[in-house]
Specification:
alpha/beta, Methyltransferase, methyltransferase activity, COMT-like
């Protein structure tokens, strides 16, 4: 009797523990949007800059931020609970390595990425995710009466923030891609949709024999001249404004695209790739740098790519793709997918190499 009752109680306890675990998982997911807004507030108040590389009291930070001490203490403690700050003694805080990326003065800063992905304009469409799932329509277009990139054109400050966010997102890839592919056997790389040139600059610095072209819209290229000048690459890299839905520049033997195709539908992706194929020399390469989804979700691996896939759905009408999906759009554009190589230090990105079919 005792054994049976003990077993039953243990089972009941295990069930209770399991229920608590399940509830915690759901609660963490639901409160994720609140965490994001907490980080947004930290950036807007410049808290990491104000704390700097020393330990400071909440009262000191509040005074410099033009805030009240008690609400500031609450915010700083929330940031400490998220791993961005550390509270040493009551009301005294320092910045963790993760929190340091919220300092815009650092080369590894993620502040523009935070601002852009917590920007109300970006989040409005997420309120209508269920509508996009039902209809297949792009929620952003329905809300604002225009597509996302047309909207950016009307707001230069927001467009500049977006460009900087994309540059920050490209830094991890820029650190590994120049040595992940044998660029040295080619002569010219055109970065299609290359923005401010963060990725292409890294390639050109690593391979002095290469020249480059950044092809993007006028808005996309807005920060490129200053970026190339800082890198000392103005004589080796030219800027060509244009629309990759109409054409891409001739003359390169490598056409590179990072985080471009996922912005667009399959039909639009085929159009972009077709224009690359039309100007690709016989021994040339098309390089696509994007996440490659597995055929089946690995629920044990934390992967934000499925959330970016939904972001593409509601904001721009694009999608993340599996290897089979990339093979399909390449084939339809007259290209043959040769290989898919994970970029281990820039997870979840892969290097997809294609040639003329």
């Amino acid at each position: 009797m005792m054994t049976r009752n003990t077993t039953t109680n243990d089972a009941d306890n295990n069930d209770a523990d399991s229920t608590e675990d399940v509830r915690e998982v759901v609660a963490q997911l639901v409160f994720g949007s609140l965490a994001a807004q907490t980080v947004r507030a930290a950036v807007r108040l410049r808290l990491v800059e104000l704390i700097g590389d020393k330990e400071r009291s909440a009262a000191e930070v509040a005074a410099e931020a033009g805030a009240l001490p008690q609400p500031m203490t609450r915010l700083l403690r929330a940031l400490a609970s998220l791993g961005l700050l550390r509270e040493h003694t009551a009301g005294s805080f320092s910045v963790t390595p993760a929190g340091a990326t919220l300092d815009p003065g650092r080369p590894d800063s993620l502040t523009s990425l935070v601002r852009m992905f917590t920007e109300p304009t970006m989040l409005r469409a997420w309120e209508h995710l269920d509508d996009s799932v039902r209809t297949g329509d792009v929620a952003f277009d329905a809300i604002f009466g225009k597509d996302f990139f047309s909207h950016l054109k009307e707001f230069p400050d927001l467009s500049a923030e977006f460009n900087t966010a994309m540059s920050q997102a490209a830094r991890a890839t820029a650190a590994v891609l120049p040595r992940a592919f044998d660029f040295g056997r080619f002569t010219m790389v055109t970065d299609v949709g290359g923005g401010d040139g963060t990725l292409l600059s890294a390639i050109l610095r690593e391979h002095p024999g290469l020249t480059g072209v950044i092809h993007d819209t006028g808005e996309g290229l807005a920060q490129a001249p200053a970026s190339l000048e800082r890198q000392g690459l103005t004589t080796r890299c030219s800027l060509v404004a244009g629309d990759f839905f109409r054409s891409v520049p001739e003359g390169a033997d490598v056409y590179l695209m990072k985080s471009i195709l996922h912005d667009w539908s399959d039909e639009q992706a085929v159009t972009i790739l077709t224009h690359c194929r039309e100007v690709l020399p016989p021994a040339g390469r098309v390089l696509i740098v994007e996440p490659v989804l597995p055929e089946v979700v690995n629920s044990e691996a934390a992967d934000l790519t499925y959330l970016t896939d939904l972001n593409m759905m509601v904001n721009v009408g694009g999608r993340e793709r599996t290897r089979a999906d990339f093979e399909d759009v390449c084939r339809r554009a007259g290209l043959s997918l040769m290989s898919v190589t994970p970029l281990a230090q820039a997870d979840p990105f892969c290097l997809i190499e294609a040639t003329a079919a």
